[in-house]
Specification:
Helix content is 39%, strand content 14%. The chain has a domain of 223 residues: Alpha-Beta Complex (Amidase signature (AS) enzymes). It has an 11-stranded mixed beta sheet, sandwiched between helices. The chain is an alpha/beta fold.
């Protein structure tokens, strides 16, 4: 069942929230041994919340939009009194002291949080192979990756274990796994969803974003988690979104050699989507995004620089895993050396180098200038069109281990998603099936135009 059906049945009394939660947990335990989407399920608190929902119904109290709906959350989003590790050894025993605003909004609408999902450590990766605890497999092909860094959340929805989940997207970490796993995934506009309670990686770009099995469920969960939060100074009030009539919408397709490294199966899916759009009599126009070719290097310099700063707190003294050292420096060095994986250390070193004296202007400052160019290019494009269409990824899901020794190839998985993160705009993956593996196409719109994305996808995929 989708989330809307579950909530409707619970609110009408046709289904008990406790019954739904119990079956969901049983389903997770039955399926997840082969997939590895979950790091932990929250049986006790989930059943307690479900019973509270059923009690509210019996008392005649009004139930929320997500009454009894099971939701999974990525392991970098805090849920008070529950473990949160960022899939890292350094936070292995960390218990959340408070609840993230996005999670609290779900709870306030009577959703049931059933567990935390696997991820690339500290959200650094594109395959969910960088977790300190386990790898996650693609439900469509167990020998392939589910994408990353929110691979566990995407796989949990794709495998039918939960109808909804939360991930986080910094450079594509919701959209790319959504494409690999054949589900819907949204990177909201920067500031539209509170980051309070999201473990910091690259604070100027990261956003909590949802996964769902259908577009209406995606719209529903976004309506719950979005909005201004006084606890997050970067969050903004939800703007009233007035979408143009769909027959008046113009869709832009970039022409700047952006498709030169795209696989044949992805191009086939993209062209089929274009055909659907044209059959709906929606206008398609070629546009230029000249600076998009610089988005991946600029993104990785900025994100790594911010990671270098944000992860400095995990030193074994203030936070995280502590190794035994004879002297303060050796303890600090050993704690970070043993507590972080090679990918996290690679990015910390890259970011520290980019911020260091003598290189700051050459790398970090230049990357920030590129970020402004990318934002300006998108702004110019949105003066001509309402939506920009691209593939979400250059390939379908790759095999486990295929890119672990080739970081550059892994980073290029973000070639179609990093630009939107730099610009701070919203973007949505819509699943497309090609052969035996799913893939996705990406619809991008200007700031706070999420409803426009939902509307166009509903029309094309109806």
């Amino acid at each position: 069942m989708n989330a809307r059906d579950i909530a409707g049945y619970v609110k009408s009394g046709k289904l008990l929230a406790a019954e739904t939660t119990k079956k969901t947990l049983e389903n997770i335990h039955a399926k997840d041994s082969e997939i590895g989407a979950f790091l932990e399920t929250f049986e006790e608190s989930a059943m307690r919340k479900a019973c509270q929902i059923d009690s509210k119904f019996k008392k005649g109290e009004k139930l929320g939009k997500l009454a009894g709906v099971p939701v999974a959350i990525k392991d970098n989003i805090l849920y008070g009194s529950h473990r949160m590790t960022c899939a890292s050894k350094t936070l292995k025993n960390y218990i959340s002291p408070y609840t993230a605003t996005a999670v609290q909004k779900l709870l306030d609408e009577d959703a049931v949080i059933v567990g935390r999902t696997n991820m690339d450590e500290f959200a650094m990766g594109s395959s969910t192979e960088n977790s300190a605890f386990q790898i996650t497999r693609n439900p469509y092909d167990k020998n392939r990756v589910p994408g990353g860094s929110s691979g566990g959340s995407a796989a949990a929805v794709a495998a039918g274990m939960v109808p909804l989940s939360l991930g986080s997207d910094t450079g594509g970490s919701v959209r790319q796994p959504a494409a690999f796993c054949g589900v819907y995934g949204l990177k909201p506009t920067y500031g539209s969803v509170s980051r309070y309670g999201l473990a910091a990686f690259a604070s100027s770009m990261e956003q909590i974003g949802p996964f769902a099995g259908d577009i209406e469920d995606l719209k529903l969960i976004f309506s719950v988690i979005s909005g201004r939060d006084e606890k997050d100074s970067t969050s903004l009030p939800a703007e009233k979104q007035v979408s143009p009539a769909l027959r008046q919408i113009k869709i832009g397709v970039p022409t700047d050699k952006i498709f030169q490294d795209v696989s044949g199966e992805i191009m086939k899916a993209f062209e089929e989507t274009l055909d659907k759009i044209k059959r709906e009599k929606i206008s398609v126009k070629e546009i230029s995004l000249e600076s998009i070719k610089f988005s991946v290097p600029a993104y990785y310099i900025i994100a790594s620089s911010e990671a270098s700063s944000n992860l400095a707190r995990y030193d074994g003294t203030r936070y995280g895993f502590e190794a035994e050292g004879k002297k303060a420096f050796s303890s600090y060095s050993q704690s970070r050396g043993e507590g972080f994986s090679s990918e996290v250390k690679r990015r910390i070193l890259l970011g520290t180098y980019a911020l260091s004296a003598g290189y700051y202007e050459e790398y970090y400052l230049t990357a920030k200038k590129v970020k402004h160019l990318v934002r300006a290019d998108f702004g110019k494009a949105f003066q001509e069109v309402d939506i920009i269409l691209t593939p979400t990824t250059p390939t379908a899901a790759f095999k486990l281990g295929e890119k672990t020794n080739d970081p550059l190839s892994m980073y290029l998985s973000d070639v179609f998603t990093a630009g939107q993160s730099l610009a701070g705009i919203c973007a949505l993956n819509a699943p497309v099936k090609t052969g035996n593996l799913p893939c996705g196409v990406q619809f991008s719109a200007s700031h706070f135009k999420e409803n426009l994305l939902f509307d166009i996808v509903k029309k094309i995929w109806r």
